[in-house]
Amino acid sequence: MNAAERLWRGLARRDWEAVRAQFHPSAVVERAGAGTRQDVDEYVAAHRVEAAQREGEIEVLRSVVDGKAAVIEARVGTRRCAGIYDLHDGRIAAAVEYWA
Question: For a Cys staple, 71 with which of 15, 34, 40, 64, CB 3.0–4.6 Å?
Answer without folding.
Answer: 64
